TrEMBL record:
Subcellular location: Cell inner membrane; Cell membrane
Main localization of the protein described in the UniProt heading: membrane
Residues forming coiled coils: none
Protein name according to UniProt: Iron ABC transporter permease
Keyword tRNA processing: no
Keywords, in A-Z order: Cell inner membrane, Cell membrane, Membrane, Transmembrane, Transmembrane helix, Transport
Membrane topology qualifier: Multi-pass membrane protein
Superkingdom of the organism of origin: Bacteria
A matching Pfam family: BPD_transp_1
Record bears the keyword Transport: yes
Domain ABC transmembrane type-1: residue ranges: 64-268, 341-547
């Protein structure tokens, strides 16, 4: 009896120790996600009012107005394209609908800045479209008007074409989950299909649609490559300019704080709006939404409306990039490009493993101890997705640069040895920025899989003497392998495409494919920029293929 009691006591001690260790890791990860925001706020508040006053009197109003205009245009465009396409492929039947419901996801593989390079090559003044127009008409450069691709509106179009799939996927899922009862009741009361959609189906799908639009807006305010290449002055470009061109960290921190406040305000507003809405299905049975058969010009119009974003957002850019790449002098197999690919793979692979490991720690601790502290740590871990990469970069560079400088000064004074920049110029700080930025995506994928693991499995493991880490290793991880692989792939591709944090924080002479594409495009060597852009696109297709498979199984 004494041996049994001792064994039970030892098991409880091991369980308590494992829980404390897991809790410590979860709290440390949450603190790491909170650090950039706190550091940006402190650096901005201690930067002096002179810098802030100068910003307010010069560039800040322009940054705010342009960013707001870009957000409004992208929000409206992604809403119209995403919701319209989702409704057509869900509620109607026309030739090619099965192909369209999958193809509409494909533009998600494109980074917006790659799309910008492709369309600038074709539509800019020296591009093939305007050159052909001048040759056919004999017009001079000032004899005609042509839409300017390098503009706020042009940047908005690029972002809309690659971000509308966020709205499309969530809206389509919401439409598929709706019962037809309320819709059919509205039709029976004399409402037209359009009126029933507007008054019944759309309000019921509003939370999902608002979530998709918010994702698109967050990506818009975080975008740097597109707006920088088009010369659009937003908060994202202002942060980079202040940090590098002007070497003014105080101005960069204060601009980053403005952008951070704007991002968090959007997130809070969307959550508040969604929290006020409650929609419930009437009746216990789930009746599938009826799909109307389209024929003649209606079928042709539906197919055209669905095909336009696919053609403009995927097919045409791929053709343009391939033609550009064939005309370039870039050798993808050269030693230099092999280095770019190696650096990109190292960063993406390391960041994916670190980020998913962090997601496992936070998610499993929340399951193990579902209290307020675990919920707070999970909430803080998700905040990074609402923070643009440039803000995270500034928020990590400021405190760690101060630490490196203080350590170097102390080592010089004490031992006469210079330590240099131990942390600031390292890959690991850049990996930490990626973890903060993309932890929310990995955590969502992990929690989605974790919901399939019944609580009885945890209880059975504990009754058999398993520690928390033993339960995680022997039960959860084998079951969650598909979800974890999805999370790894999503983070891997997001890191391959990420640009602002990489530009600011990368170690010296450690360039990636995204940086090389941006550098060549900045030098107006668009044919050369097509080569690394195509590699980024090829990698980005991997998660999109997985998403397309899920869409294909949607019904």
């Amino acid at each position: 009896m004494a041996e049994i009691q001792y064994s039970e006591h030892g098991s409880r001690r091991r369980n308590a120790l494992g829980t404390r260790v897991l809790g410590g890791l979860a709290y440390a990860i949450a603190a790491a996600c909170l650090l950039p925001m706190v550091a940006v706020a402190l650096a901005a508040l201690t930067g002096g009012t002179d810098t802030l006053g100068h910003l307010m009197s010069t560039v800040l109003p322009g940054y705010a107005a342009t960013t707001l205009l870009l957000v409004l245009l992208v929000a409206a465009g992604t809403f119209c394209l995403g919701v319209g396409a989702a409704w057509l492929v869900t509620m109607t039947r026309f030739p090619g609908v099965r192909l369209m419901e999958i193809a509409l996801v494909l533009p998600l593989a494109f980074p917006a800045y790659v799309l910008a390079y492709a369309y600038t090559f074709v539509l800019d003044h020296p591009g093939v479209v305007q050159t052909t127009l001048r040759q056919l008409t004999g017009w001079g450069p000032r004899d005609y008007w042509f839409p300017e691709i390098r503009s706020t509106e042009g940047a908005a179009v690029m972002l809309i074409l690659v971000l509308y799939p966020y709205v499309y996927l969530l809206a389509r899922a919401a439409f598929l989950q709706q019962s037809a009862t309320a819709y059919l009741a509205a039709r029976a009361l004399g409402s037209s299909p359009w009126a029933a959609f507007w008054r019944v189906s759309l309000p019921m799908a509003r939370p999902a649609i608002a979530g998709g639009v918010l994702l698109a807006v967050m990506e818009t305010i975080a975008d740097f490559g597109t707006v920088a290449y088009f010369g659009v002055r937003t908060f994202a470009t202002g942060i980079y300019t202040s940090w590098f061109s002007m070497a003014d960290r105080a101005a960069a921190a204060q601009l980053a704080l403005c952008l951070l406040g704007f991002a968090l305000l959007l997130a809070v507003a969307e959550r508040t709006q969604r929290g006020k809405a409650r929609y419930y299905q009437s009746g216990r049975r789930h009746a599938a939404m009826p799909a109307g058969e389209l024929k003649g010009w209606r079928a042709a119009a539906a197919l055209t409306l669905c095909a336009i974003p696919v053609l403009l957002g995927f097919v045409l850019p791929v053709v343009i990039l391939v033609l550009m790449g064939l005309e370039s002098e870039q050798d993808l197999l050269s030693r230099r490009y092999i280095g770019f690919i190696r650096n990109s793979l190292i960063l993406a692979g390391t960041a994916a493993v670190v980020t998913v490991t962090a997601a496992i720690c936070v998610g499993f601790f929340q399951r193990l101890r579902p209290g307020r502290s675990a919920q707070i740590s999970a909430y803080l871990a998700r905040l990074g997705y609402a923070v643009p990469g440039g803000v995270i970069a500034v928020g990590l560079m400021v405190p760690f640069a101060s630490f490196d400088n203080a350590l170097d000064a102390w080592m010089r004074a004490t031992f006469g040895v210079s330590t240099g920049l131990l942390v600031t110029g390292s890959i690991w700080l850049l990996v930490a920025a990626y973890m903060v930025r993309f932890l929310a995506a990995a955590l969502s994928a992990y929690e989605g899989g974790q919901s399939t693991v019944h609580a009885n499995m945890d209880a059975a493991a504990r009754s058999l003497g398993q520690t928390p880490f033993g339960t995680l290793r022997r039960i959860h991880l084998p079951i969650l392998t598909p979800s974890l692989m999805t999370a790894l792939l999503i983070v891997f591709v997001d890191v391959m495409k990420e640009l602002p944090a990489t530009l600011i924080m990368r170690p010296f002479n450690f360039d990636t494919l995204a940086v090389q594409a941006y550098r060549l495009a900045s030098d107006e060597r668009l044919e050369g920029a097509a080569v690394p852009s195509l590699v980024i696109l090829a990698v980005g297709l991997l998660p999109v293929i997985l998403i397309c498979r899920q869409v294909g199984r949607g019904k």
